[in-house]
Amino acid sequence: MRCIAESVDRASSSVLPTGRTVVSLRGFRPHDVPVVASIVGEALHEHYDTSLYFSLSQQWPAGFLIAADASDAPVGFLLGVTQVEGEARILMFAVDRETRTRGVGTTLMTEFLDRCRRRGMRRATLEVRVSNVPAIRFYSRFRFGVTDLLRGYYSDGENGYQMARELP
Questions:
Q1: What is the domain partition of the chain in residue ranges?
Q2: Is CATH 1.10.150.20 what the domain over 2-122 is classified as, yes or no?
């Protein structure tokens, strides 16, 4: 796998459409692990060994897009990789419960898809739990469509959908 996201060394502040939340996009930092792991557990219902985050950050450091609040604490993140030539895969993507519906996910997804286009990617894919209707609606707004049913895909046995979109 190769990371497809460009480096996010510079913080790019964005006032989100609601005007209630200001975030900056930056790269992953080792001290982000507890907050990112907490967001993953709550939002994705998965629990990974913390070494996974360190491994991904070292091997593909630009792959973590972190949305940080005014105090620089992560409130959301997106981790994208490539496994197939010309195709991006969103491996993990989540926003803290208190920050959802304030545009943070939209900011992360928009930046990620822009980076994919700049890198010449032609397609983006992701997986989502079949029960996660709000996420499916969110991805549909970004023109992702269901391409496959993944039976027993998640660690608890829940099915998932694979979703994909072309990147014009």
A1: 2-122
A2: no
Distance of alpha carbon 43 from alpha carbon 135, whole angstroms: 10
Global pTM?
0.83
> Token digits for 106?
């939209």
Tokens 């005014």 belong to which residue? Answer: 70
Q: Tell me how many degrees the CA angle 48-49-55 measures, rounded to the nearest 5.
A: 105
Calculated CA dihedral for residues 96, 102, 103, 109, nearest 10 degrees: 20
pLDDT digit string, tens, across residues 111-142:
999 988 988 899 999 999 999 999 999 999 99
Residue 62's closest CA among 85, 79, 49? Answer: 79
* CA 81 vs CA 30, 63, 71, 96: distances in Å: 19, 7, 28, 22
Token pair of 151, please? 């039976």
Q: Are the C-beta atoms of 25 and 8 separated by less than 8 Å?
A: yes
Phi, psi of 124 (to 5 degrees): -130, 140
Contact (CB, 8 A) for 63 and 3: yes
Nearest CA to 113 out of 58, 154, 167 is that of 167
Whose tokens are 């792991």? That residue is 37
